[in-house]
Amino acid sequence: xxxxxxHLLVLDDDEDxxxxxxxxxxxxxxxxxxxxxxAELPEFLAxxxxxxxxLDMNFTLGDxxxxxxxxWLAYLRTHYPQIVVVVMTAYAGVELAVNAxxxxxxxxxxxxxxxxxxIATLHSAVAxxxxxxxxxxxQGENVALRGSLEHLSQMQKPACFIGETTSMRELLRKLSLxxxxxxxxxxxxxxxxxxxxxxxxxxxxxxxxxxxxxAIDMGAIPENLFEAELFGYKKGAFTGANENRMGRLVxxxxxxxFLDEIANxxxxxxxxxxxxxEQRQVTPVGDEKPFALNVRVIAATNASYVHLTDERQFRxxxxxxxxxxxxxxPPLRERKDDIPLLADHFLSVYAQKYQRKKPLLSHKALxxxxxxxxxxxxxxxxxAIERALVLSDKDTLQAEDFALAPVAENSLSDSVQxxxxxxxxxxxxxVEKALKKHAGNISQAxxxxxxxxxxxxxxMEKHDL
Length: 465
Hints:
CATH superfamily of the largest domain: P-loop containing nucleotide triphosphate hydrolases
CATH topology of the largest domain: Rossmann fold
Pfam family, one: HTH_8
Number of domains: 3
Protein name: DNA-binding NtrC family response regulator
Number of strands: 16
Domain Response regulatory: 7-126
InterPro entries: AAA+_ATPase, AAA_lid_NorR, CheY-like_superfamily, Homeodomain-like_sf, HTH_Fis, P-loop_NTPase, Sig_transdc_resp-reg_receiver, Sigma_54_int
CATH architecture of the largest domain: 3-Layer(aba) Sandwich
Shape: elongated
Helix content: 40-55%
Strand order of the largest sheet: 2-1-3-4-5
Domain Sigma-54 factor interaction: 161-390
CATH class of the largest domain: Alpha Beta
Largest sheet: 5 strands, parallel
Strand content: 5-15%
Distance between the termini: 67 Å
């Protein structure tokens, strides 16, 4: 038979049995370990990855009931459910073997064993263990994929790449060069400019396109859950950890890891992320066994470059790890010549979605769209087009169908604006001003407005910013 590619632990208090196992199995299995004291099992498992445990059922002198074996079998099933357990005993009647299998053992052998029978049993056990581990990884990936696909289903085709302006042509040129490589990419751009869509496009053009795209909003993860969410955790690691859970980083293995809002990550958490990216391995909370990490990292932020290069706010060693290639998405106000193309695209998308004839845009409506400053960028234009199409049954959309603030109002001086007492207008102006002041950085704008990030998002949605 071929060498069994796994790690087997033989647990028996009889040194003669352990010696026999070593002599027989040392050339049959890739990694073989032996213990003669069951009390050492928890410590041993904390530091080693085991596929199969060959477990003796009796450790107490004079006790042949198998009680000790059942206790350790229960321990393994509770704390290490992925490990396959094969029990062995010199007193194995049919009833004891059946009860052991009912309690969670996969198979049993009788001492003295048949060499061929033992080797065949271990072959099957290791194959089962590896299948369990693979299934656990696939389950984690499936959960991550479902979340990723559900998020993608809410998004439109990558309209941010519709454009003929010079800045967009240059962006697409850089995209075509870096996407097929394994280089880490840092995407800069204002809120709503299409950073995640750009990241997905990089993934789609890479060699990892057939694997998972894992998007993580770093600003939305509470600090106290950062390690549990990203690194995963072991059952019992903390209150509420009722089962082993795979972290998002391991679930992204083989694919692309998109770290959105990276600048919102606290400094002490930046250190932990940097260590994982440098070592290319991640250790779940409450565990000591690291998992190898094989991902391509794409990060994004709406923070200014001044913020990123400020050591008090962002670690420079992490920045250098992330920005092998740096791509900047231009705001919509700097590519207004692309607005007609974008508007036509969104009209086609929503006409099909709502099963109605695609309306036209009047010259005044198109002019209004191009003159508007669009602090919410392409996302805001997308929402404006959808709302106008839903609320109008006309064949041609007019400027008033978009409910945009008049150009003259946008250019009012602060002194004139302060004469307005309409709460809706005052709130909109305050939110827009804060977003402009902080170049679209949601966290900083929310802090200045005295709001949470989610509260600011709700007001941006309300005012179409």
